[in-house]
Design goal:
about 120 residues
């Protein structure tokens, strides 16, 4: 019995799996590109922003998170956490469009792949 000949769509499925693997390796590499000390400092800053958010200090959170996002560019997970905090702070200020814009990049499933859903 012979194997079925792959169709054009099968080839695209294989390419899609390969691209998923490449994206995963890229995300892993990005996560490792920050030193542990830098990563811990950013995580600490984000935790402090969460506390400020709980206190209703959304303007201070926006200021701090914008600065933190620049430092977190090398880590997709930290950047996603920062964007979520920014989105929440902007929503608290009534800036709904800007709030959605902050997390718009994560609308696609591919963009959320490899990120911690509970973070």
């Amino acid at each position: 019995m012979s194997k079925p000949t792959p169709t054009g769509m099968d080839i695209f499925k294989d390419e899609g799996r390969e691209m998923d693997a490449v994206r995963a390796r890229l995300a892993e590499t990005r996560s490792r590109s920050l030193s542990n000390a830098t990563r811990q400092a950013i995580e600490s800053e984000l935790e402090g922003a969460r506390v400020l958010l709980d206190q209703g200090l959304s303007s201070e959170v926006v200021r701090r998170v914008n600065a933190t996002m620049r430092a977190a560019r090398g880590d997709a997970s930290l950047l996603a956490k920062a964007r979520c905090l920014l989105s929440t702070a902007l929503e608290m200020q009534g800036s709904y469009g800007e709030s959605l814009e902050a997390v718009k990049v994560y609308e696609s499933t591919d963009a959320r792949e490899g990120l911690d859903a509970d973070a």
